[in-house]
Design a protein that fits this description.
The structure is a single chain. By secondary structure, the protein is mainly alpha-helical. The protein has one domain (13-19, 35-159): dinb family like domain (Four Helix Bundle (Hemerythrin (Met), subunit A)), CATH 1.20.120.450. The protein is built from 5 helices and 4 strands, in the order αββαααββα. A two-stranded antiparallel ribbon has the order 1-2. A two-stranded antiparallel sheet has the order 3-4. A hairpin with a 3-residue loop joins strand 3 (108-113) and strand 4. The longest helix is centred in the C-terminal third of the chain and has 25 residues, at 123-147. It is globular, with a radius of gyration of 16 Å. It starts with 7 loop residues before the first helix and ends in an 18-residue tail after the last helix.
């Protein structure tokens, strides 16, 4: 029997589409970037976006065996700066998928994290983590913004993703 599965490509497409919706929303609501935010000790929503996109970028670099940029070197001055981080991560993730195979996906690598020290995970698990990490923080952000009086009135659940069938 064939296993039912959602592919990494499908999850990546959902992440990209979802982030595009958020980008447009923040462009229309730039003051929301400065809202106080205690999620992951980020101080502001801008700080949380930096965290989301920095994880995407740094972990995508790990997947590709590249040098990992220092967190403090990642710019977050403008929405364009933040989106550029995400865009680079997406390019990295697509490049990884274009040349990977099952053997590479099963390979366990060591990751030096900021908050948890050294962690070991397969490249497949790291790829899934990147996307699930973002999804989890977007959900937290939706609640924070709603409580602050900002409407984010589009469906955010994976079920409603137009990126996959």
């Amino acid at each position: 029997m064939m296993a039912a599965a959602i592919t990494l490509e499908e999850l990546l497409a959902d992440n990209e589409a979802s982030t595009g919706t958020w980008e447009a929303w923040f462009a229309a609501n730039p003051a929301a970037l400065e809202l106080p935010c205690a999620i992951y000790n980020s101080a502001t929503v801008r700080g949380l976006l930096k965290h989301i996109f920095a994880v995407e970028l740094r972990d995508s670099q790990r997947l590709n065996g590249e040098e990992v940029v220092a967190y403090d070197a990642i710019p977050a001055g403008s929405l364009d700066d933040l989106v550029a981080i995400h865009s680079q991560a997406i390019r990295n993730l697509r490049r990884f998928l274009s040349h990977t195979d099952d053997t590479a996906l099963r390979e366990v690598i060591a990751l030096q994290t900021i908050s948890a020290g050294t962690v070991h995970a397969s490249r497949r698990k790291l790829f899934a983590h990147i996307l699930l990490h973002s999804m989890r923080h977007w959900a937290q952000l939706s609640s924070l913004l709603r409580e602050a009086g900002y409407k984010t009135d589009w469906p955010k659940d994976f079920l409603f993703s137009e990126a996959i069938a």
